[in-house]
Structure formats: C-alpha cells, structure tokens
Amino acid sequence: MVAVTVVVCAYTLDRWQDLVASVRSAAAQQPTPDELVLVVDHNPELLERASRELQPEIPGLEVIANERRKGLSGARNTALERASGEVVVFLDDDASASDGWLASLLEPYGRPDVLGVGGSAAPRWPTGLSRPATLPEGSHGRGVLDWVVGCTYEGQPLSQAPVRNLMGCNMSMRVRPALDAGGFSEDLGRVGRTPLGCEETELCIRMQQRRPDGRFLFEPSASVRHRVSPDRLTWSYLLHRGYAEGLSKATVAGQVGQDQALETERGYVARVLPGAVLRGLGRAVRGPGRRNGAEGAAAVVACLAATAAGYARGRVAAATGRTSFASRPALGVTAERSGA
C-alpha cells in the first residue's frame, strides 16, 4: 500500500460542524492515513480554533496555514509541497467519507500508470428538503446537473473507468507528477464563495500531457456525502454557477487547448442534456409532476445557456487580453523527493 497524505482545506468558521465531521471521517478510515493535514485558508480565527479544539481530539492531525495565494488552489498547493506521502488525497471540508473510502481510492495505485483516482459524491440535502426542480434527477439516482453542487452527475461512469479529470471534492493523485506539472493554477479555483473552478481539470490535463502513458480513474465505490447548503438550491445560484463554469472552462481552453478542455463536456452536452430536457417535457405533458418536469427542463436549458455565455465571455476576454486569469501553473518543479 502506498503512503498517503489526506488533506482537508477549509476557509470559514461557518462550516465548523461540517469540517469536524469531514476530518473525523478521514481519521476513521482503514487503513488510517499516514498523514492527516488540515489547511486553513487565510483565516486566523479558524486556524486558532482548529488548533485548539480539533488537533487535540484527533491524534496525528496537523493544522497548518495556507502559505500561498488566498484560495482553494493555494491551499492545495501548500498541502502538495508539505505532503510526505506518495499519494495525496483531497476531501472537501463539507464532505464526509464513507467506510472503505480511502481503501477504494488507494487500491488502483498498485498500477504504475495510474496518476490519480477520484471518487463519487452524493448530495446531502438541507434538513427537511429534498432534490429541487432546479437539479433534475437523471438515472441511477444521479442528478443531471449535480456538478453544480459538486456531486457526481448523470453521464459519469457507473464502475471504475478512465476519465479526463478528477472531481475536486473527492480526489487523489501522485504527489511527484502533480508537483512536476506545476501544481494547481492559483489563477483558477474557488476563493471564498466565488464559484470559479476547473483547477483540478487543468492540472489533470497538464499531468497527462507530461505523462502520456499515465491515466486518471474514476472509482465510484470511493464515496462521500457532500452537503448542499440552501443557497445552492436557487435559480440564481444555478445560473451564477453555470456562468462561472463557462468562464473557468474558457481559461482552461486557453491554457491546454480547446479540444482537451471540452472533450468530456461535448459528450455530456450531446448525449445527457437532450435526454434530460425530453424527459422533463414528457413529465410536463403527461404528469404527474408536471410542474417539476417543466422546471427541470427549463433548468437544464438555462444552465447550459449560462455556461455557454460564460465560456464565450471568457474566450473574448482572453482574445482581447482583458482576462484576469493568467492560466499558469503555480509551482515550479521542486527538488526530488523520496517515495514518488
């Protein structure tokens, strides 16, 4: 079994209970992590509380501050540079791992061509609420638009399979190749509540460009429950998140090329979304659930339109030199480390 560093990144006290549950779920895994690290993103109050309350509770937990640019990418790069394991695992601060999660993520690393392994994420809805019409259900219990809330969505593999990139809330990768590729771009990724992203997509593509023989795997049995806050169930969040996704994809396309940046998305748009719209319209006509069917179809169309608008805006900004994203790797190639 490879040596593993499990990392949780956190930025706000508002998620304290979620953060505690996340770290506890990671610490309770079998096998236990060789190293468990909480990276606090430029929040001295959270850093102090975690050091005072959480660190004494969980033996071996290391609480450190983000030493790089503010944001999730900077926090992850801090962890990459400090990790002692051959493999680093990232778990979101509002996600709780299931039993067997870590073992399922680590099993494929017995194959030397595996660069990274990602798991699945199921939504944990707010207390008293269920799946909203803005996130219509697809097949196999997955939502068509569940990527909006950081969860596994319809169209992703149902069993272990190669994928272009990993999903940020539940992913692992070999440390050495990630560092050699430059780490996470700190011009991408979430900062506070701003829902930009795709930093893991861009890094996975760069890692594979450096290692054409390498691959990333999706292992759905490595599952987590990802909390969905009430503010993410609204139409405004759906459109805002879609637009931000388009902006982020435009930045990735400028860095690694449009073909690789949109390879997965083309299949999703061509196969999954039309079926979702037709199912929603069918429900709207035949009932029961007419209203939910109509709203679900409208949500798919609106989210796709917002994403396309964000992508177009990002590409125009890049072409005119007005983009705020430099789209560059954040880390230089560091010194050789053992175990990689």
From TrEMBL:
<keyword id="KW-0328">Glycosyltransferase</keyword>
<dbReference type="GO" id="GO:0016757">
    <property type="term" value="F:glycosyltransferase activity"/>
</dbReference>
<dbReference type="InterPro" id="IPR029044">
    <property type="entry name" value="Nucleotide-diphossugar_trans"/>
</dbReference>
<feature type="domain" description="Glycosyltransferase 2-like">
    <location>
        <begin position="5"/>
        <end position="146"/>
    </location>
</feature>
<dbReference type="InterPro" id="IPR050834">
    <property type="entry name" value="Glycosyltransf_2"/>
</dbReference>
<protein>
    <submittedName>
        <fullName>Glycosyltransferase</fullName>
        <ecNumber>2.4.-.-</ecNumber>
    </submittedName>
</protein>
<dbReference type="Pfam" id="PF00535">
    <property type="entry name" value="Glycos_transf_2"/>
</dbReference>
<dbReference type="InterPro" id="IPR001173">
    <property type="entry name" value="Glyco_trans_2-like"/>
</dbReference>
<keyword id="KW-0808">Transferase</keyword>
